[in-house]
């Protein structure tokens, strides 16, 4: 197992009011993303636990693009990874970001 | 599309139960927005045992438990995620369900829905998982003794195997879809232990007609058969909650009679096809291919399951 | 101890327990008066539909007509792994047996498991683990998951698994590990007459609440289960 | 083989019918084993020892689907003193026995087209010198050589049934048989057929009896691999996204009606999206109506929804026979009602009469060359290079062909401008086991070096590829004006592979502005809509329902 952590400055706060969202499952080639709105508005933190070691550079690129595209300020993303491909990681992160933009029920 | 619209739109329950995640099943099964989770993923109550094996954890340890409304009535719900470790029971996973059932027992008035999707005991924490299943079985019986209805809904990827099959057998009633296999020993386990002549696990038609939802319904092992949709399972859950009888000594006696009768009638049948034929189904070989609606009509015709014998 | 030794030691006043192809049934005279129902599985017999239906019949008949504790004496294999058993609904038969035992236990017929040999998986759940108190005798050898099978699935060598087993009782076989997780409440001593130990247990019998998770925590073998169950219980009660 | 005969000064030949005489001698040697043309299965090896000579060219019929499995076992059992050093000229090296022939020394030299499940072992044996390799071909190319310089001396073929005269019914899986028999029988070769049964009258005559010399009745039906069955349950969201991109970004704008699909999950997703997503886009009747294609079960919903006019097939597919029989408007069927497939004709159809090929691959390099070879596997080519190449001899116009030609050469004079076939590579940026689809250099090059091959095994050459589709978007290579644009267009859809991360972001941005690269959002596609609920069928069982119960999938695909 490898632990990775990426901290970014986001252009703006993630929209919506939802406090928490979870998407995906930990299975082979899949991952779960837990999003929590508990950081200062300009910050974004992505923490990863992954079974596939040695892919830090790819994670770095995926997450930098994600923050650039979705600007999820104020949100901490926690990932449990079952060896997902980068396109799946991008999709789950985007899904989590979209869920956070919903209004809390 | 604004986010608010998605949240308020009436839920689409036409989708596949088999393909949905545990969370999606719960969200769509219950009345919209009514679900409240206990010890959700943000609590990060993960399994303490997986890291020993270098395996990734899941924040909810593969089970969602909580409370919500079903057609306005409060229910407790537990849903296993069949894709995480095959939905298997570990220490934390099992304890969440045990706690929920004990609460139902103490409150006496709130029914429990178990969305089972499991391969049985999680072998990396086998002792804890086995014991968790024993505790859950006991808690189900205690809850039912206290008057609680415990209904199992089975139609997930991992089926309902091992100790999961025993928990299913302890429920007040079960609804199952074609995909929802219920058994104790899995096909591969039988083949490994007894040889391919006893059971060819790669003969998928054999697996399904021995363990699958249609056979369980025709045998009386499940009360209702549902199409593989969330709506199907919701309708089945409402039907069963409205119709299961109280649990007591008479129930156990009736079940004893039901199972003895089954052994006597079908004990010598070598295959499910023979059992279905003995049940009076004219073209038993056509059963696996029947669409859900036709199968339900057929099953209702040949076997009205007794709802006071489980 | 052989089964015969165990029965003699448990019931010095006599018993009529029979072993029919591995299925035990009968009763024994308790020193404190009355009789105990005895059911169980011997000779490492697999628990299939034929065994389970006979055992549940004995238990149900006894609930209707008898009194006193129920002893579940076990040296079994796992569930019977066969096409016929699964075809006919083994899960229902095993669950029914467990239900009968647990129902009896709740309704004044305390169920006491005595594990003197092997047991595993579904066979274990339907018998010894469906009791209020599970007693282990020296030499008992319960196996939830054997290490060779585990090695096959985890792709870890048996040596590595045995090494890991030293730090946690949570997966490896054996009476000691199951005692630590709370499955086995107490272990009896062969040197003392079993009747003495049974009477002591009956004198001080715990109520019918399932406390195995608390026991596992106390013994350090299952640290999270009791707390998690209690937290969910508390949250669920609050929301009424 | 041809030897000069001593003694005649004016002519080097004493006879113009040496081949025929040799054939007759071989036939005579086998006469005692046959009753008429019928030979018992137990005498099959004896028959082969009688008619095959050391060093013969032998075609052992087998491709990616059906296999003359009884005859391959019989050949493996020959006495090496009688038969050895054969030159195998066959479509498929698929059964373990096919390679055991080389291990034993029964065969020495090999020319073939496809190796599928034996791809790893064949690589090992080539490297170990166990096999003397002629060349790896495409199907059509090997068929062509049967008529020029690789004509078989003996053909060992498979059919469903035969009558006593040797007329053969090859059934839905006719495949290569007519081509192999044509080349062998009319050039003094010997044709031996294994059949599932011998009957009084065959349902239809696929091979006339005068081209067949011996018939062996097998104890079990010949093996057929269900290679073209893709379980919809295994289709992922990313594959659905690539399918949506292809439909909206390529099928629709070019109006592609005549086409071939590969066998991967991406194209299966396209087939299952036609009746849902395609319908929503209003494309029915405008695209995907005429196919050179095997009977893909995944296409059933589109057929049932009225999308498909007709399909010509290379072979059949296990379980599809009754469905095909009930849909003669769509498939080519014989007077008996069953499918008539023909690999050679369908390959020609795919090459000349289709405007698009779309399929997946394992590796794509910076020039767009693609390969299914890895350093340890040689899967062969099969038919993909014929489907996936521009036919330089094509002369008839069509909208998609002209449009593609125009995009490639906008300034050319229209009446003199060649059209282009659309050759589309589709896949996710990372494949199985997270292996990147895009690489700086194909493994095929390393393999060629290791085996000292003159040509690296390239499945589709970069200059034939017109589009690459990944979940990142579509790269239209027709619009690239030089090698560096082409490279950046490829990098631009290569996602987070090393190739993708090394892109020149500014240049990729400019290519996107020009429409060379089109992202999902450029096409109005929301990646979140790429959901499995969009598939017309999500399981094999759904396909059975769509077919009205006519499709009978093999047991391994069932979950009911």
TrEMBL record, chain A:
Cellular component terms (Gene Ontology): cytoplasm
PTM remark: Covalently binds the prosthetic group of malonate decarboxylase.
UniProtKB keywords: Cytoplasm, Phosphoprotein
InterPro entries on file: Mal_deCO2ase/Cit_lyase_ACP, Malonate_deCO2ase_dsu
Domain of life where this protein originates: Bacteria
Subcellular location: Cytoplasm
Residues recorded as bearing O-(phosphoribosyl dephospho-coenzyme A)serine in the entry: 28
Protein name in UniProt: Malonate decarboxylase acyl carrier protein
Main location: cytoplasm
From TrEMBL, chain B:
UniProt keyword terms in alphabetical order: Transferase
Transferase recorded as keyword: yes
Domain CoA carboxyltransferase N-terminal: 1-249
GO MF annotation, one: carboxy-lyase activity
Keyword Transferase: yes
Record GO cellular component, one term: acetyl-CoA carboxylase complex
Alphabetical list of InterPro entries matching this protein: AcCoA_carboxyl_beta, Acetyl_CoA_COase_Trfase_b_su, ClpP/crotonase-like_dom_sf, COA_CT_N, Malonate_beta
GO biological process, one term: carbohydrate metabolic process
The protein's name: Biotin-independent malonate decarboxylase subunit beta
Organism encoding this protein: Bosea caraganae
Upper lineage: Bacteria, Pseudomonadati, Pseudomonadota, Alphaproteobacteria, Hyphomicrobiales
Automatic annotation (TrEMBL), chain C:
Keyword Ligase set for record: no
InterPro entries: ClpP/crotonase-like_dom_sf, Malonate_gamma
A GO molecular-function descriptor: lyase activity
Enzyme nomenclature, EC number: 4.1.1.88
Membrane-spanning residues: none
GO terms, biological process: carbohydrate metabolic process
Keywords: Lyase
Origin superkingdom: Bacteria
Key word Lyase present: yes
EC top class named in words: lyase
NCBIfam families tied to this protein: malonate_gamma
Protein name, as recorded: Biotin-independent malonate decarboxylase subunit gamma
Source species: Bosea caraganae
Chain's gene name: mdcE
UniProtKB/TrEMBL annotation, chain D:
Gene that this sequence comes from: mdcA
Residue segments, region Disordered: 384-410
Species for this entry: Bosea caraganae
Cited InterPro entries: MadA, NagB/RpiA_transferase-like
Listed name of the protein: Malonate decarboxylase subunit alpha
One Gene Ontology molecular-function label: transferase activity
Any matching Pfam family: Mal_decarbox_Al
Signal peptide: none
């Amino acid at each position: 197992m490898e632990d990775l952590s990426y901290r970014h400055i986001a252009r703006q706060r993630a929209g919506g009011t939802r406090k928490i969202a979870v998407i995906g499952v930990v299975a082979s080639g899949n991952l779960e993303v837990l999003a929590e709105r508990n950081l200062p508005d300009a910050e974004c933190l992505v923490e990863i636990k992954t079974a596939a070691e040695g892919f830090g550079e790819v994670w770095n690129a995926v997450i930098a693009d994600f923050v650039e595209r979705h600007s999820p300020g104020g949100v901490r993303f926690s990932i449990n990874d079952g060896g997902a491909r980068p396109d799946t990681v991008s999709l789950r992160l985007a899904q989590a970001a979209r869920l956070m933009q919903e209004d809390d029920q | 599309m604004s986010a608010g619209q998605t949240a308020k739109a009436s839920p689409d329950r036409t989708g596949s139960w088999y393909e949905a995640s545990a969370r999606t099943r719960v969200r769509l099964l219950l009345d919209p927005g009514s679900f409240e989770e206990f010890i959700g993923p943000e609590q990060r109550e993960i399994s303490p045992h997986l890291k020993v094996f270098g395996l990734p954890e899941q924040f909810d340890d593969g089970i969602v438990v909580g409370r919500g409304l079903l057609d306005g009535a409060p229910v407790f719900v537990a849903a296993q995620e069949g894709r995480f470790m095959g939905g298997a029971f570990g220490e934390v996973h099992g304890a969440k369900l045990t706690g929920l059932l004990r609460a139902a027992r103490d409150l006496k008035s709130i029914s429990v829905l178990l969305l089972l999707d499991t391969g049985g005991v999680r072998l990396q924490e086998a002792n804890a998982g086995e014991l968790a299943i024993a505790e859950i079985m006991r808690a189900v019986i205690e809850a039912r003794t206290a008057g609680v209805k415990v209904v199992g809904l089975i139609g997930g990827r991992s089926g309902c195997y091992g100790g999961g099959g025993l928990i299913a057998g302890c429920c007040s009633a079960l609804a199952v879809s074609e995909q929802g296999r219920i058994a104790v020993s899995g096909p591969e386990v039988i083949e490994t232990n007894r040889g391919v002549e006893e059971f060819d696990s790669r003969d998928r038609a054999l697996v399904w007609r021995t363990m699958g939802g249609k056979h369980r319904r025709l045998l009386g092992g499940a009360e209702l058969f549902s199409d593989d949709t969330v709506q199907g399972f919701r309708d089945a859950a409402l039907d069963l909650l409205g119709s299961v009888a109280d649990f007591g000594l008479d129930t156990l006696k009736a079940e004893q009679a039901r199972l003895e009768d089954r052994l006597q009638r079908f004990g010598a049948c070598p295959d499910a096809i023979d059992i279905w034929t003995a049940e009076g189904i004219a073209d038993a070989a056509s059963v696996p291919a029947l669409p859900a609606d036709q199968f339900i009509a057929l099953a209702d015709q040949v076997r009205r399951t007794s709802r006071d014998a489980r | 101890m052989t089964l015969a030794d165990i029965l003699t030691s448990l019931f010095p006043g006599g018993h009529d327990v029979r072993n029919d192809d591995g299925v035990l049934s009968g009763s024994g005279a308790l020193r404190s008066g009355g009789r105990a129902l005895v059911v169980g599985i011997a000779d490492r017999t697999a628990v299939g539909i034929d065994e389970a239906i006979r055992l549940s019949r004995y238990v149900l008949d006894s609930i209707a007509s008898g009194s006193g504790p129920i002893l579940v004496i076990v040296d079994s294999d796992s569930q019977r792994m066969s096409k016929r058993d699964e075809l006919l609904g083994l899960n229902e038969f095993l669950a029914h047996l467990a239900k009968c035992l647990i129902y009896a236990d709740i309704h004044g017929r305390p169920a006491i498991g005595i594990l003197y040999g092997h047991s595993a998986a579904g066979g274990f759940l339907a018998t010894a683990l469906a009791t209020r108190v599970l007693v282990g005798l020296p030499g008992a050898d319960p196996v939830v998951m054997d290490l060779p099978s585990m090695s096959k699935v985890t792709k870890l060598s048996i040596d590595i698994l045995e090494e890991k087993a030293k730090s946690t009782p949570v997966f490896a076989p054996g009476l000691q590990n199951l005692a630590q997780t709370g499955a086995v409440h107490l272990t009896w001593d062969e040197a003392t007459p079993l009747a003495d130990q049974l009477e002591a247990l009956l004198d001080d019998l715990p109520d019918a609440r399932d406390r195995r998770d608390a026991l596992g925590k106390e013994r350090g073998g299952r640290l999270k289960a009791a707390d998690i169950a209690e937290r969910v219980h508390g949250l669920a009660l609050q929301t009424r | 083989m041809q030897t000069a005969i001593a003694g005649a000064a004016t002519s080097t030949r004493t006879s113009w019918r040496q081949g025929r005489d040799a054939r007759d001698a071989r036939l005579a040697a086998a006469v005692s084993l046959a009753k008429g043309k019928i030979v018992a299965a137990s005498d099959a090896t004896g028959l082969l020892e009688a008619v095959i000579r050391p060093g013969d060219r032998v075609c052992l019929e087998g491709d990616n689907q059906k296999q003359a499995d009884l005859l391959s076992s019989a050949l493996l059992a020959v006495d090496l003193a009688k038969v050895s050093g054969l030159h195998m000229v066959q479509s498929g090296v698929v059964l373990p026995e096919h390679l055991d022939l080389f291990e034993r020394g029964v065969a020495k030299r090999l020319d073939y087209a496809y190796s599928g499940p034996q791809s790893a072992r064949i690589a090992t044996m080539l490297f170990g010198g166990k096999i003397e390799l002629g060349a790896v071909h495409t199907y059509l190319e090997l068929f062509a050589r049967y008529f020029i310089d690789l004509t078989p001396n003996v053909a060992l073929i498979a059919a469903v049934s035969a009558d006593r005269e040797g007329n053969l019914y090859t059934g839905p899986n006719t495949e290569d048989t007519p081509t192999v028999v044509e080349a062998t029988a009319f050039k003094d070769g010997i044709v031996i057929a294994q059949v599932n049964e011998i009957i009084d009258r065959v349902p239809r005559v696929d091979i006339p009896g005068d081209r067949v010399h011996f018939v062996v009745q097998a104890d079990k039906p010949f093996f057929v691999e269900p290679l073209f069955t893709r379980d919809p349950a295994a289709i992922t969201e990313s594959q659905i996204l690539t399918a949506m991109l292809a439909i909206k970004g390529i099928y629709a704008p070019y109006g592609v009606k005549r086409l071939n699909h590969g066998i991967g999950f991406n194209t299966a997703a396209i087939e299952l999206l036609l009746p849902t997503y395609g319908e929503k886009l209003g494309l029915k009747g405008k695209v995907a109506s005429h196919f050179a294609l095997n009977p893909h079960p995944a296409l059933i919903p589109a057929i049932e929804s009225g999308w498909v006019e007709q399909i010509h097939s290379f072979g059949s597919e296990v379980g599809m026979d009754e469905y095909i029989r009930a849909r003669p408007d769509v498939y080519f069927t014989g007077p008996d009602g069953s499918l008539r497939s023909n690999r050679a004709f369908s390959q020609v159809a795919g090459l000349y009469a289709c405007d698009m090929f779309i399929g997946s691959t394992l590796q794509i390099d910076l020039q767009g060359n693609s390969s299914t070879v890895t350093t340890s596997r040689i899967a062969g080519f099969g038919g993909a290079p014929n489907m996936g190449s521009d036919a330089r001899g094509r002369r008839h116009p069509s909208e998609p062909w002209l449009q593609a030609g125009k995009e490639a050469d906008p300034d050319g004079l229209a009446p003199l401008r060649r059209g282009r076939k659309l050759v589309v590579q589709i896949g996710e940026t990372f494949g199985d086991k997270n292996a990147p689809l895009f690489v700086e250099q194909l493994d095929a090059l390393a393999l060629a070096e290791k085996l000292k091959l003159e040509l690296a095994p390239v499945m589709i050459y970069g200059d034939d590829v017109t589009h690459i589709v990944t979940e990142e978007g579509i790269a239209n290579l027709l619009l690239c004006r030089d090698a560096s644009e082409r490279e950046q267009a490829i990098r631009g859809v290569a996602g987070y592979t090393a190739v993708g991360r090394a892109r020149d972001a500014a240049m990729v941005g400019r290519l996107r502005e020009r429409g060379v690269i089109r992202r999902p959002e450029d096409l109005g596609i929301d990646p979140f809509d790429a959901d499995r609920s969009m598939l017309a069928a999500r399981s094999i069982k759904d396909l059975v329902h769509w077919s009205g119960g006519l499709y009978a999938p093999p047991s391994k695909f069932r979950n009911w």
